[in-house]
Design a protein that fits this description.
Layout lengths: L1 H13 L16 E2 L7 H6 L29 H4 L7 H14 L3 H4 L1 H15 L11 H9 L6 H19 L4 H26 L5 H27 L2 H11 L9 H19 L3 H5 L11 E2 L4 H15 L16
Antiparallel strand pairs: 1-2
Helix pairs in contact: 1-12, 6-8, 6-9, 8-9, 8-10, 8-12, 9-10, 10-11, 11-12
Pfam family, one: Ubiq_cyt_C_chap
GO biological process, one term: mitochondrial respiratory chain complex III assembly
Protein name: Protein Cbp3p, mitochondrial
């Protein structure tokens, strides 16, 4: 029954794309946010199984005591409308041109270490007495997962892995740069959150937590990779162990819904060119969304539209050797 159920979900949700590939894709892909096709959130809510709370801790999980800036207090990162003055822009463009700087490698920091990490971080981010985002509601309310720092880490690690799958398809030196920037920022941010938000003052305790989280990250990536290379049952088992904490009372429909949600992200990334991904043109599909798969003709038209978007990028800072075809 589990195999049949998951296979069905893969057809409905796993072979889907998203309009966020590019603005030009909007006319190619129909976005579903209702029950035309069961989206992961609706699929999980359709379960009639009783909720059985899992007692993982003997005492309540430590909760954030304060809220720090989402990424940092740096103006460039914290203000989406920040714009460098014209003199600094011209000076920077000149330096790039004179020294022939590899912008694809330089772009790894602001794209992977900032934008893509922000995408991962916000999926399950929560603060006491603040409303949850739609994605956070999916995990904490729909899937009935506990609100804790370790649970946030596991969900963030899952999204890190999803991005890392696409990064591996980049040319090797760029894959390593993007992956390293993303994982470095992940652990640096956890360190700051534990000290600033969770109120842990001991560096020794924080270091111990970071080592444990690093071990968990390596284990989860290995298990997800095994599922990616084998079948949905293996990937579902990895999600059950890591995201659902191996809960023997976990709702099978919830695991099925999360599996479909993950497969959606992987499909979207698979349809993106290296150039699009390297420039940060990706956002995770929301759990309450499903998109209709692209036809071959639509894929060809989408590629052409994307090329038109990038063909006018002729500034030194916009240079790239990443492919627009794959």
């Amino acid at each position: 029954m589990l195999r049949a159920s998951i296979t069905k979900n893969r057809i409905l949700c796993g072979t889907s794309s998203t309009t966020r590939l590019s603005g030009t894709a909007l006319r190619h892909v129909r976005l579903y946010s209702n029950d035309d096709i069961s989206n992961p959130s609706s699929l999980a809510k359709s379960s009639n199984l009783p909720k059985i709370e899992q007692q993982l801790l003997k005492k309540p999980a430590r909760q954030p005591k304060k809220k720090s800036p989402f990424l940092s207090s740096h103006a460039i990162e914290n203000d989406p409308n920040y714009k460098m003055n014209s003199f600094l822009q011209s000076f920077g463009q000149s330096l790039i041109k004179i020294f022939n700087i590899d912008m694809d490698k330089s772009r790894a920091g602001p794209i992977a270490g900032s934008k893509y990490y922000g995408e991962c971080k916000k999926q399950a981010l929560y603060y006491p007495n603040e409303p949850l985002s739609e994605s956070a509601k999916f995990y904490y309310e729909t899937l009935n997962l506990p609100q804790s720092f370790s649970q946030w880490f596991q969900i963030t690690a899952l999204h890190y892995w999803i991005l890392s799958v696409r990064m591996r398809a980049l040319p090797f030196k760029y894959y390593r740069a993007y992956q390293q920037k993303l994982v470095d920022r992940f652990f640096r941010d956890m360190e700051l959150r534990m000290s600033e938000e969770m109120g842990i003052s001991s560096n020794r305790i924080i270091e111990g937590y970071l080592k444990e989280f690093n071990t968990q990250l390596l284990g989860s990536v290995l298990s997800y990779d095994e599922g990616l290379m084998t079948d949905d049952i293996t990937l579902a088992a990895a999600l059950w162990r890591n995201i659902f904490n191996g809960n023997p009372n976990a709702d099978m429909r919830h695991i099925e819904a999360l599996l479909g949600h993950v497969r959606q992200q992987l499909y979207v990334l698979n349809k993106m060119s290296d150039r699009q991904f390297g420039f940060g043109d990706f956002k995770f599909v929301e759990p309450n969304e499903v998109v209709k798969p692209l036809t071959k003709a639509q894929e060809v038209e989408l590629r052409a539209a994307v090329k038109r978007n990038y063909e006018n990028m002729d500034l030194p800072s916009q240079r790239s050797v990443l492919s627009l075809n794959e």
